[in-house]
Write a structure and sequence with these properties.
94 residues; 2 helices; 0% strand; elongated
Length: 94
């Protein structure tokens, strides 16, 4: 048995627990991701909005895959679904 096989065997219980937590708290995780994305987008003054949106979508897809829900399967390759995107940055004072 190779090193990676041993590692997978040891991490199997952790993956199961993480999947259960993702199923149980998926909505709260999504809200936290949205809140973090909004804060980062505000701090960067919208300069990286597209990258933040893409990263948030990929993180949500990963949580959905871990939880075993259908939300992460075929959801546009990591794009945040409409209505869940971080809000536009506040207008800058000129």
């Amino acid at each position: 048995m190779g090193f990676l096989d041993q590692l997978k065997d040891k991490l199997a219980p952790v993956k199961g627990k993480a999947a259960g937590l993702a199923r149980q708290h998926g909505g709260r995780i999504d809200q936290g991701l949205d809140k973090a994305a909004k804060a980062v987008d505000r701090r960067t003054k919208g300069k990286y909005s597209d990258k933040i949106r893409t990263g948030t979508g990929k993180a949500k897809d990963a949580v959905d895959r871990l939880a075993g829900t259908e939300g992460g399967k075929g959801a546009g390759g990591g794009a945040t679904p409409p209505g869940n995107s971080p809000p536009s940055p506040p207008p800058s004072a000129s």
